[in-house]
Amino acid sequence: MTIVVLTAVPPGLRGHLTRWLLEISPGVFVGYVSARVRQHMWERVVEFVEDGRALLVYAVSGEQRLAFEVHGHDWTPVDYDGVMLMRRQTAPDYVPAPSAPMRQQRAGSTASDETVWKRRDARKKFRKK
């Protein structure tokens, strides 16, 4: 069994995967393919994913009976005593805001306490008009 989960990828890549897998939900593909086809398919996904994210889960022989491949994702697979686990990024995904000279600071707080979400400016609803 092979499962591919795609997020924010071009529509052509989703169409390409429907050659081998069934799309059971938007961006979620499942099916049975050989190891050779799975490897070729994953190479194509990594090539065309651009700024999106991709996750591949497939069956293998072993204690867990599955393995992971990740591209462009914050979570990474880690081998812990023979068991594959997904490790989240421990560092926060934000950066300190630049301190404004005219802004009044609260007692006991510093400019480094304030944070701004890194991706906020890229989102449409937060763009300046």
Automatic annotation (TrEMBL):
Comp. bias (Basic residues): 120-129
Region (Disordered), start-end ranges: 94-129
Pfam families: Cas_Cas2CT1978
Signal peptide span: none
InterPro entries referenced in this protein's UniProt entry, alphabetically: CRISPR-assoc_prot_Cas2_sub
Domain of life according to the entry: Bacteria
Protein name, per record: Type I-E CRISPR-associated endoribonuclease Cas2
UniProt source species: Phytoactinopolyspora halophila
